[in-house]
Amino acid sequence: MACVAFLVLTLTLLLFISKNNYPDFTFSLTALEHSKISAAEASPCISNFTVASAATPSLRASDASSLRGVVDVLVDDHDAVDHDAKSFVGSLDDDDEHGVVGKLLISALRDATARAAAGASERDSRMTDAEVESWRRKHPCRSRGELELKYKRRKFVKYLAPNSLWQRVFTEYEKLHRTCMRKLLGGSSSSDGQEKDNKFVFSRNFSSVKDSGCKFVVADAQDFGLGNRLHAVASTFVYAVLTQRVILVPDKIVVPDIVCEPFVGSSWRIEGDSVREKELWTSSDQVWATMKNGTTAEEDAVSMFAVRVDNEKWHPEDRFWCDAEQELLEKQATWVYFQGCFYTVPKMFAVPRFRPVLEKLFPDRRVLTHVLHSLLLPADMVWNRVKQVDNVFLKHVDRRVGIQLRYRKGPEQFNKDHEMVNWRILRCAIDNGILPQPYQISSAAATTNSTPEETIMVLTTSLFRSAHDFLTQLYVRHPPGDENTHAAVGVVQLTYEGGQSSGLEEDTQALTEMILLSFSDHLLVTPYSTFGSIAQSYGALRPLLIDVRPESDLACEHAKSAEVCWQFATTIVDCPSEPRENGKLLWDVVPYVSSCSALEGVYEGVQLLNPEFS
Length: 614
Description:
By secondary structure, this protein is α/β, with parallel strands linked by helices. Strand 10, helix 12 and strand 11 form a beta-alpha-beta unit. Helix 1 runs parallel beside helix 3 and helix 4 (99-117) crosses helix 14.
């Protein structure tokens, strides 16, 4: 019976992969070494979204002859796991809401949690209702229950409902994170019943994790703006889920201070600067140099306990996005370290072992929105500011318009171009039906006695106040005069610092303004600004990109997608162990990955296309 059950599982997976056109998705089936192995020991171990164990041949779905080998393996061990095999296969009904691939990911997370819990008390992996309530009191997060309501109220934007499969995966990942951290830090409670500080001290725990059954990834983003830091943390988290690694974030990058603690009963904070000591990490260049024909040569082996994959280039190197390299990291690297500032998820879809699960997890390909709404919710000190501004300026209007401006070269570019940019913003808003014609450029006379049929509030965010003053002059001091419009327009800007800086207060206010922009019905942004791209992603918005190029006559154009551009990403696949894809353009391998808009102002760059825009 086990033979039949596992064969059904195999065929189900093959049919699913074939139906969804995944010719490069590899998987393995457990070769049971002993006929007396227990059902628990035979449970799927699929951290790379494979059904795998230590002694398994790798099979490609496109290789028909390999199926006979699978059958031989099953026949050899037909008595091993009869009842559990039938139950597992039965649970993977592809008609189920979450499908085969979704359930395999959930199974992988559970398996990783079970390995981490080995040798630990049950208290290290479970929380009572009282403990959960105590933890929530200590780590309040009002935005968790209130943020979605701000998006539901919009009249001109289709509401993006929470992703049920992603929520379930997030819950399972939360258990893994809690189990590992409690095990390493000695549980959650002291003898007097008070909860211990759950911050991870890197220098003290770096080597001790080796036998913990846990794997880790560090998301670092020092010396970058807040938008870049949020991009880096969100990207690293997606990778952490795909590879069942515990994500940790240095408190030096401030992000843990301005967003809610994401994992109940756990913490993702790393204390101190020790994580950045270069001598701790083996560079990925050294790791890839050991690979010959997709495997590691023993005579050339280097220490792979802790691998730094960015090599100080602001994002992982190109070979990081290859199947063989990911398999090597999975098997040998307990620690992986990211130091970056970009949104790197588009290339995760190019990794064959990741692509099927990402497609199942995010069929709308609005990855960053779902991650922000689960992982990076604004902390109460941010949320209180958001609600205060929202209650005064945004809550009771009919239409909300967000405008975000970034002059990349600072005051020099501002002084030269701001008047041109202001008029382009106005033309863009009028041409796209967002704002009415102001009285000064309308042929109609002002009608100040009529009651407006629509109220519009424009929120501008910029280091300079030129756009705010320009729009105020047009709309507030000289209201729209078209008697067919009957719209009242207000303009507000909260800050205008004149220069970019960072710190707890600056980042608190920056995230406040990002969230407020995300409430917009219409969003106009500077193309290459991560400040604007975080706002669009929280709001699930496809923005209008303002053309700031002096040589252009274009006012703006719609972004290609609601997903953001990974600026400066290379567009060529660089995977020597994958000859069929190596050297191809990324969109020839993954058709829903595209180059970024020319307005992004970068020579290279890639982004995911949402199905409705591709």
